[in-house]
Amino acid sequence: MTSTVPALGTLTAEGSALQAVLLDMDGTLVDTEGFWWDVETEVFASLGHTLDDAWRHIVVGGPMTRSAGFLIEATGADIGLDELTVRLNDAFESRIDHALPLMPGAARLLAELAEHEIPTALVSASHRRIIDRVLPVLGAEYFALSVAGDEVPRTKPHPDPYLAAAAGLGADPVRCAVVEDTVTGVTAAEAAGCQVVAVPSVGPITPAARRTVVPSLDVVDLPFLRGLMTDLR
């Protein structure tokens, strides 16, 4: 976990109870959920197997070990989990070297949070090697810290990554706003006790208590995120 944590300054700013914003990466800030499926399809094709498109919703948003393990079992491919993980990460890195599009509204939201000195963390199920390739494109200066899926005992859908990010920022998870794009990520954030903004990328996500569903990041700004904490003031 990398960290350059600034002093917290949002608890009393303009009366807001918002202490930090924790952001998922793939499908939330960068338009890469489709990249992962394309890479998985290509790697398994090289092994002589065709992936069922229905599996896409099963593997999206989760840790590499879960998605890769599922695909090995589903296809019967003769490859070990460790070797497959390396091949998938290698292929993904090659893909993002050619293009890494941001999601609509991502650059504007990150700049706004930085302008107002809101402590912000990147929290991803992707491995550290992938996060470190993406951070320069997003702007590493926008994040006080980042948490990778291979740096916590249990990654999403468990709460560990979001609890680690909140602790690293010195924030109460209940006073953190999380932005996620998958059910797996939403489950992790809610288990950590955070307020969640869901921006569905692949599968549908339904509204629920402490969960707000929006069509894109274009509608998410600092007043919106602070408004999620109204009942905590």
UniProtKB/TrEMBL annotation:
Q: Which keywords annotate this record?
A: Hydrolase
| Keyword Hydrolase annotated | yes
The answer on whether this UniProt entry bears the keyword Hydrolase reads yes
Q: What InterPro entries has UniProt attached to this entry? A: HAD-like_sf (IPR036412), HAD-SF_hydro_IA (IPR006439), HAD_sf (IPR023214), PGP-like_dom2 (IPR023198)
Question: What domain of life is recorded for the organism?
Answer: Bacteria
Check the record and name the Pfam families matching this protein.
Hydrolase
Family annotation (SUPFAM superfamilies): HAD-like
GO terms for MF: hydrolase activity
Q: Which PANTHER family match?
A: 2-DEOXYGLUCOSE-6-PHOSPHATE PHOSPHATASE 2, PSEUDOURIDINE-5'-PHOSPHATASE
Q: What is this protein called?
A: Hydrolase
